[in-house]
Amino acid sequence: MDIVEACRAFVAVGDYGSFTDGAAVARIPQSVASRRIAALERRFGAQLFNRSTRTVTLTSFGRELLPSAKRLVELAETLEHNAERARLRPFRMAVPIVCNPLQLARLIAAGRCKGLNLDLHAAEPGERAESLRTMEVRAALVAVPPGEGTWRVPLGLAGGIAVQSRALYMESLRPSRADEDARRRRVWLQPEDDVPHIRDPLTRLGAAVGLQPAQVQVANSVAAAAAEALGSTDLLLCSASQAEELDLHWRQIGELTELARGYRLVTGLSEDTQRTHTLSAAEIGRCLGAPEADRSG
């Protein structure tokens, strides 16, 4: 027997003096109200109502129990209200700026269906780690070497000019004597990729194949980096999905085919870890631009 629901029926019938009216107020069929009150009477071993063909009145036993039943119903309603508020309290999570907005919206919608009201905060790698450390957010998708992460996002070079080859070799950007005075093509990194496990291998490769230091640069924003690639022959380091969003043509880096972003979802408290387990790894992977094979970690 659900004692709260039984007491709810008892209170409604007791207040209205009618099984019909009480059941209507409690939004249950009259037969259900009768069964629940009968179950209470069996549990307590005494009648709660004097029943006749015309009226329903409380017994002395029923009058004694009615105030306690009301308090129990009120407490149950307060508990349900507080539980709903706790369920809908925003769960703040830091995500990369490069995440696809449509996929983020789908992640929020999926979270709500599972009782998690996500409040997503887009930030750069250092800011995400710091906001988690200071508990400004309850969870963060932190940048890690791809071998240490749950999600892996391969990186390549994208430009505004369509080409047939599937790979672009950094050595092809090396300036020759013939075009020494011409503008050298540059490779632009977004702030998201200004982390050691991405920036350092790329700059070392540039030096090894003879690129000038100024040919590998970090832009102030995604938009600034994309503008350089769209408005010139420069190239943007990005994922294939991001290149598609920016209307750029993407190719692998011939000498660095394994260059990739790595991500791991980190929480500050163990209880938050349990809550984030409701999120689908595949849905998060789509936000990051991870290929299907790298979304199930």
What does the model show?
By secondary structure, the chain is α/β, with parallel strands linked by helices. The chain contains eleven helices and 13 strands. α7 links the parallel β9 and β10. The protein is 44% helix and 19% strand. The strands form three sheets. It has a six-stranded mixed sheet, sandwiched between helices. A five-stranded mixed sheet has the order 4-3-5-13-6. The mean pLDDT is 90. It is rod-shaped and about 110 Å long. The protein folds into three domains: 85 residues, Winged helix-like DNA-binding domain superfamily/Winged helix DNA-binding domain (Arc Repressor Mutant, subunit A), CATH 1.10.10; 96 residues, D-Maltodextrin-Binding Protein, domain 2 (3-Layer(aba) Sandwich); 103 residues, 3-Layer(aba) Sandwich (D-Maltodextrin-Binding Protein, domain 2).
Q: In terms of topology, how is this protein built?
A:
Blueprint: H1 3-16, H2 19-26, H3 30-44, E1 49-51, E2 56-58, H4 60-88, E3 91-96, H5 101-113, E4 118-123, H6 125-133, E5 139-144, E6 151-154, E7 156-159, E8 167-168, E9 187-189, H7 196-208, E10 216-218, H8 222-231, E11 235-238, H9 240-245, E12 249-253, E13 260-267, H10 270-276, H11 281-288
Parallel strand pairs: 3-4, 3-5, 8-12, 9-10, 9-11
Antiparallel strand pairs: 1-2, 5-13, 6-13, 7-11, 7-12
Give a brief description.
Keywords: Activator, DNA-binding, Transcription, Transcription regulation. Residues 1-59 form the HTH lysR-type domain. With 297 residues, the chain is α/β, with parallel strands linked by helices.
Give the overall silhouette.
rod-shaped
Following the backbone from N to C, one meets helices and strands in this order, namely HHHEEHEHEHEEEEEHEHEHEEHH
Strand content: 15-25%
* Radius of gyration from the alpha-carbon trace, in angstroms: 32 Å
CATH architecture of the largest domain, please?
Answer: 3-Layer(aba) Sandwich
User: What is the spatial order of strands in the main beta sheet?
Assistant: 8-12-7-11-9-10
- How many helix segments? 11
Give the terminus-to-terminus CA distance.
43 Å
